[in-house]
Amino acid sequence: MDADSEMLDIWNRYYVCSEEEAEARLAQRRQARAEARAIRLRELEKQARENDEQLDRHYDSSSEPVRPVRTSREGRTSSFVSSSSFSSSRRSSEDSTEALDGRDFRHQLQEVEESFRKAMISNAQLDNERTALAYHVDTLKDDMEEMAENYLQVQRDFREKARALDQLIRDFRKLKEENAFLEESLKQRDELIEDHGLVLVGAAELLNGDGDSSSAGSSSRSSPEKLVLVPKAQAAKAALVSQEAAQLLDQAGDGSLDVRLKRFAQEKQELQDEINRLRLDLSEEREKVARMEQISLVHGPQTNGPEMRLMEVQREANKQVDDYKYKLRKAEQENMTLQSSVARLETQVSRFKTTMEEAEKLEDELKADKRKLQREHREALARIEELETANKHLQKRIDKLKSARNALK
């Protein structure tokens, strides 16, 4: 585990350094491209202004000299026409030829101007198209940089999720080891219960051997007890008791542990009431015996008639008093035994209730942690799949942009 954590720390430092260097290089490239884009735009604006100024100059220089030439030509033709009346026929034919040449020259000049104007317009259109294409290329570069940033962000998220997944895997292994440790502890507890011949009394049934543990000649280890799962709603009412206590609970009948203890308490109360009643009867009999003794002392020892019957009644009363005394002692002994058994059972029940509640609480916490880890594991797997899909999509877009960039080059 220490080696794995050291390797993870090394990889994390390496990834952090590489990410910082990549971000620094990306920021430098982005700044350089922004500066180059601004310079390119200024140069394009300057070239557009220069082209417009050059086009205006060419248009002015090409249109202005035509007019004086035409006026000179017209003046010359007018002078030739005015002087043609005084010149010869050969001279008039030369003047007409020069006038035709001037008109052809003007037509050619106009055609050249028109073609020049069209060429300048097409040049301006091509320049505008080149500017638009350059802007489109810059936009594609910005998109590619943004996609590269998104790709780096996706990689960082993927590495974070991978680290989180590794942490979850380690936590899952740790919980698995704790679960195995708890299972081994439960197994050892079961063995200890079997070795000490104890019985796990549940809320629904008495978990012990039926015939072997209740027989008089068998020992406490002749029938090892087996633990049975008790319903969760009634698990807090389960308890470990000895064989004698289990026999007493078995004599109390069916039902839960609380019901059986209530039966013991009810029987105890009934026995206490019977003891009180017997004490009252005993006191009454003692009073009767005392009165009979007083009567016998007053009348003297006579054995005829009613005195004989009185002596017999006295003997019967003494016999009943002895029986009542014996029953009273027996009831008191049983009451003391039941009181001690009830106190011991209540102590064991309270102790085992506390133990079972702690075990249930620990089990619930472990189950909650297990469900939480499983849910986080599923979410991490789903997030990894989403990131892989987004990574593939971004890779395809980057490939398309690269192919489009190569096509533009």
UniProtKB/TrEMBL annotation:
Top-level lineage group: Eukaryota
UniProt-recorded Gene Ontology molecular function terms: transferase activity
A matching Pfam family: LRRFIP
Stretches of the chain forming a coiled coil according to its record: 109-192, 261-404
GO biological process: regulation of DNA-templated transcription
Compositionally biased region (Low complexity): 77-90
Chain intervals with Basic and acidic residues compositional bias: 44-61
InterPro entries for the chain: LRRFIP1/2
Keyword entries, A-Z: Coiled coil, Transferase
Chain spans, region Disordered: 44-104
Keyword Coiled coil: yes
Family the UniProt entry places it in: Belongs to the LRRFIP family.
Name of the protein: Putative sulfotransferase
